[in-house]
Amino acid sequence: MRALMMPHRIVMLAVAAGLVAWIVLTGNWSWLPKYAPMIGQGVWRTIWLLVLSVMIGFSLALPLGLAQASGPWYLARPARAFCTVIRGTPLLLQIWLLYYGLGSLFPGIPWIRESELWPILRQAWPYALLALSLSYAGYEGEVMRGAFASVPRGQIEAARAMGMPRRKIFARISLPLAFHSVLPTLGGETVLQLKATPLVATITVIEIYAVASRVRQDTLITYEPLFLVAAIYLMLAGLIVLGFRWLESRQPRRAA
Q1: Which whole-number Å values give the CA distances from 183 to 187, 221, 248, in the listed order?
Q2: Which residues span the membrane (predicted)?
């Protein structure tokens, strides 16, 4: 609270509040009641795409990081190659390759078209979720590589000397220490993941940005929908930051 009371920040907050008030009072919001249900659905789709892609991506990042940090070469090299490809190519290109590439192959495979999964695979959101998850896994896999590599070797050697099995060493020493060190980075990467979700609108997934584009096309009103979308993303990003700061506060402090 003391940081917010600094003069320059008070001025910035006052300017921001004035700008928001001006937009609300002078903007054309006649379209809002009609598109409110669609906006709600778009926000919900954005949230679950973000949550699922982060959960799936992080579950993939753990073995990717561990393989690079301490795995044998036949696991480390493919993991390193995967992270390099994901981090070296645009996410938009990855989304298009999965949707227009992999998605175009499935209709020509009879057993897929006749399976119970076809009503799901014919939609766009599974490819969007897969692309977002793989992207998060590629970036966080590199982050976790550094985290696992920074775990003090003395603690691991001491656990081995006590006869602790590898799985218990990983669960009780390597993973907690690595997670503790990368938690601030994960918060920033999750915010970046949120800001990457509008790219799925290019393959007809109706999330919040796609709703704003729909409003602009139907009503020719440009700025108000974009301002509303910006405010929604800002609130979601703020909640993510607060959530990760709460997790950081719950982590026990470790001696240097």
Answers
A1: 6, 41, 7
A2: 42-67, 120-139, 169-187, 226-247
Taking residue 121's Cβ as centre, other Cβ atoms within 10 Å add up to 16
Q: Are 202 and 96 in contact (CB under 8 A)?
A: yes
Compute the average pLDDT of residues 97-123. Answer: 84
Question: Shortest CA distance to 213 belongs to which of 226, 196, 228?
Answer: 226
Cβ–Cβ under 8 Å, residues 123 and 98: no
pLDDT at 252: 64
Domains of the chain: 32-250 (1.10.3720.10)
Q: Please state whether the predicted TM-score (pTM) of the whole model is above 0.90.
A: no
What are the C-alpha distances in Å from 71 to residues 59, 146, 173? 17, 13, 17
Helices 32-70, 73-88: inter-axial angle, 10-degree rounding? 150
- pLDDT tens digit string along 28-84? 888 999 999 999 999 999 999 999 999 999 999 999 999 998 888 899 999 999 999
